[in-house]
Specification:
about 10% strand, 7 helices, about 170 residues, two-stranded antiparallel ribbon, 2 domains, binds zinc ion
Amino acid sequence: MKGNSLSATPPPPPIHEIPAPNMHVDCPYCQVRLSVHPSQAGSAAGCPKCGGRFQLPIPTALPLGRSQLSAYSSTSEIQRFASKKITAGICGILLGGFGVHKFILGFGKAGAIMLTVWLAGIVLSILILPLFASAAMWIIGLIEGIIYLTKSDEDFYQAYAVEKKEWF
Ligand SMILES: [Zn+2]
């Protein structure tokens, strides 16, 4: 049957988005592999070989539940930032007082505060006081390192790249 309602579907409007690779869809009638642009996902398509009409699938790989997050950050950007998670976490645990884990995440000011307080604690402890301030910085670093390592890549990105959470 030709000329059904599917053929009246208007062409998709121009979409300003990052160019995406074409999707590959198998024609359900003749199994020929078709290459379609992702902007056509979900719309009706006609097989150029057998003429069969069918609806293109919507890619399931898209993180639809996190539309707010994915609106201004791609998955690769999350992965790129999340690659710092292990390093920052380990530095927090092992080198907490130096504030290295904060410098890794781009929090120069917070890292400098930690380093300063830690150094001040060392200097003061030589004079009179115990290592209290330094110990406190080490404990903060240790806790922060553990927090980094227990977060998912998405949560890690959200907290430290989007919200710029400097402490904990
Ligand atoms: Zn076909």
